[in-house]
TrEMBL record:
<keyword id="KW-0698">rRNA processing</keyword>
<comment type="similarity">
    <text>Belongs to the pescadillo family.</text>
</comment>
<dbReference type="GO" id="GO:0003723">
    <property type="term" value="F:RNA binding"/>
</dbReference>
<dbReference type="GO" id="GO:0030687">
    <property type="term" value="C:preribosome, large subunit precursor"/>
</dbReference>
<dbReference type="GO" id="GO:0000463">
    <property type="term" value="P:maturation of LSU-rRNA from tricistronic rRNA transcript (SSU-rRNA, 5.8S rRNA, LSU-rRNA)"/>
</dbReference>
<keyword id="KW-0690">Ribosome biogenesis</keyword>
<dbReference type="GO" id="GO:0000466">
    <property type="term" value="P:maturation of 5.8S rRNA from tricistronic rRNA transcript (SSU-rRNA, 5.8S rRNA, LSU-rRNA)"/>
</dbReference>
<dbReference type="GO" id="GO:0070545">
    <property type="term" value="C:PeBoW complex"/>
</dbReference>
<dbReference type="InterPro" id="IPR001357">
    <property type="entry name" value="BRCT_dom"/>
</dbReference>
<comment type="function">
    <text>Required for maturation of ribosomal RNAs and formation of the large ribosomal subunit.</text>
</comment>
<feature type="region of interest" description="Disordered">
    <location>
        <begin position="503"/>
        <end position="523"/>
    </location>
</feature>
<feature type="domain" description="BRCT">
    <location>
        <begin position="350"/>
        <end position="440"/>
    </location>
</feature>
<dbReference type="Pfam" id="PF06732">
    <property type="entry name" value="Pescadillo_N"/>
</dbReference>
<keyword id="KW-0539">Nucleus</keyword>
<dbReference type="InterPro" id="IPR010613">
    <property type="entry name" value="PES"/>
</dbReference>
<protein>
    <recommendedName>
        <fullName>Pescadillo homolog</fullName>
    </recommendedName>
</protein>
<dbReference type="GO" id="GO:0043021">
    <property type="term" value="F:ribonucleoprotein complex binding"/>
</dbReference>
């Protein structure tokens, strides 16, 4: 019985011995170094970086670095995710074709090299964008870096062998399409001009999107700059922004990509061309809606789908050529109440009416692209000095002219000549500020950041208080000037030995009755307004209070010395 039981018993589990350096547990099993990942994928380092950027795979920081701190680690699941990517095989084929092209060029066979370039495999990033952003709101949350990169390359010069002209033009087109949508729907909220560039913030589908656009200066690119990594990011960002623009344009019933006037494109008037495209497309969509509503039955509608589409396309093309460049209806303002447009919130209605019934003209020294984007976004009409402009400088309906240098010729009556900062401050304050502080020849007030909670932008009450305190400032200035002149005359008469009190009183009366010029009072009003609008720190307030106390002590000492001198003369 014992033998039978022993025959049926299971054999004991034998635990095999494993050397301590061969264990694959914990971080060693979850993370892999970059060199091992490259060997596993059988790709080069630049190709590995490009695939990681396109797929959104980034290095990890494990708690315990098994191979040391000088290695870069990736998660093993991320490497397996890249290994089964079809794009990886296409990139390998492209690399093989590049070797064939170099070989043909080395053998001085240009025909074969040209043929190989034409047959080189291509790829698209549509599926990758969809995999990384299943929902459109996810894409909107990641648009900050995308827009900043696209606007940066739109301002860079072309570099042979590095940055192609076609890529720069594509970045400029995508940036203008995004700005045209924001301006069309009045979604711009904040603008700030800094040393780095111009910061913009828009609210799209409830998401705040912030990006940085460089200043319109000549960019100097040195040989030390490595654009390989940036170009890999830019390749993905171009596809992402194109998908975002397409979705946003379709949300307001506008066809994408837009068909622009080639004459305006040649004149670098892309903003104006896009606004005309919106105008024409909105009219055509409105006509199509009217025709579809007038159709009889469903069968008739189904039979007329093809002709209606063709007619709308033809009508859109005709409108593009029929709209004159000087037509008032095709100016920088955009059509309202477009079918399919999202419902406007309170901020959008407020921004839409900020520059309503205002007409701006930009001098040639002013940064044109930024103001052409901002002013229509807040309901204004704008033109510029140059070819392709909607209206000229001598238009009588212009209310504000933006200048940045003193004018040599005369000014036109009934028109405000202001600094460009006035537009940005009005946008951030959401009210029309007085133009007295922004006239040419005067130092404008500090341009504060709207991205920081600052009470100085709530300027409506401040302006009312400043207007009420203007008269008080005038009187104080008069009395101060009168006391200074009285003190000056008393000192002169003391030096000359004159003690006639009547002459002193006459001088005092004359100085008190004399009025000061108006420009001093205006300067006082400006100073009081600026000081009231600026939120000073505790240290600055302490310094100003100390200066005020020292002035009062000095004035008190002067009064004591003057009184002692009078007493000495009387004795």
């Amino acid at each position: 019985m014992a033998t039978a039981m022993g025959a049926t018993a299971l054999p004991a589990m034998v635990k095999h011995y494993r050397p301590p350096g061969k264990k694959n547990e914990g971080n060693a099993a979850r993370f892999i170094t970059r060199s091992k990942a490259i060997k596993q994928l059988q790709v080069s380092l630049p190709l590995f970086r490009k695939v990681c950027i396109l797929k959104g795979v980034f290095p990890r920081e494990p708690k315990k670095k098994v191979k040391g701190n000088h290695h870069t680690y990736y998660h093993l699941k991320d490497v397996s995710y890249i290994q089964h990517e079809p794009l990886l095989e296409i990139l390998r084929e492209i690399r093989a074709y590049q070797h064939k092209v170099k070989k043909a060029e080395a053998k001085k066979n240009p025909d074969r090299a040209t043929l190989l370039r034409q047959r080189s495999p291509a790829y698209k990033l549509d599926k990758i964008v969809l995999q990384r952003y299943p929902k459109f709101l996810d894409a909107l949350r990641d648009l900050d870096d995308c827009l900043t990169m696209v606007h940066l390359f739109a301002a860079l010069p072309a570099i042979e062998g590095c940055i192609e002209v076609k890529r720069i033009h594509n970045c400029r087109r995508l940036a203008h399409e995004w700005q045209a949508y924001i301006s069309r729907t009045h979604r711009l909220r904040k603008v700030f001009v800094s040393v780095k560039g111009i910061y913009y913030q828009a609210e799209v589908k409830g998401q705040k999107v912030t990006w940085l656009a460089p200043h319109p200066l000549q960019q100097v690119v040195t040989d030390d700059d490595d654009f390989n990594i940036m170009l890999n990011f830019l390749e993905f960002y171009e596809a992402l922004l194109a998908f975002a623009n397409c979705h946003l344009y379709h949300s307001i019933n506008v066809k994408y990509p837009p068909i622009l006037d080639p004459r305006l494109e040649a004149l670098a008037a892309d903003h104006y061309a896009l606004s005309r495209y919106f105008d024409a497309n909105s009219r055509s969509s409105a006509w199509d809606c009217q025709e579809s509503s007038l159709s009889g039955s469903g069968k008739v509608e189904s039979q007329q789908i093809g002709p209606l589409v063709d007619e709308s396309e033809l009508r859109l093309a005709q409108l593009q050529h029929q709209l004159s460049s000087n037509e008032p209806g095709a100016l920088m303002h955009l059509v309202e109440d477009v079918p399919g447009e999202d419902e406007e919130d309170n901020d959008t209605r407020e921004c839409k009416k900020l520059f309503k019934d205002m007409k701006f003209f930009l001098n040639r020294e002013v940064y044109r692209d930024s103001l052409l984007f901002i002013i229509p976004a807040f309901g204004g009409i704008v033109s510029w000095q140059g070819d392709g402009a909607p209206f000229e400088e001598d238009d009588d309906s212009i209310t504000h002219q933006i200048i940045d240098r003193p004018r040599q010729d005369g000014k036109i009556c009934g028109r405000e000549y202001v600094h460009p900062q006035w537009v940005y401050d009005c946008v951030n304050a959401r009210i029309i500020l007085p133009t007295g502080n922004y006239l040419m020849g005067r130092d404008p007030p500090p341009h504060l950041s709207p991205f920081v909670d600052n009470d100085s932008f709530e300027t409506e009450g401040v302006i009312n208080r400043a207007e009420a305190e203007a008269e008080v400032a005038k009187e104080k200035r008069k009395k101060m000037k009168a006391h200074e002149k009285q003190h000056h005359h008393e000192l002169i008469m003391e030096l000359e030995g004159v003690t006639d009190s009547s002459s002193i009183s006459n001088i005092d009366n004359l100085s008190a009755d004399r009025e000061e010029p108006d420009h001093d009072y205006e300067q006082v009003e400006e100073d009081n307004r600026i000081m009231s609008e600026i939120e000073l720190s505790r240290w600055v307030r302490g310094v100003i209070e100390g200066m005020r106390i020292s002035r009062q002590r000095k004035k008190h000492l002067d009064d004591v010395i003057r009184q002692r001198r009078r007493n000495l003369r009387r004795t």
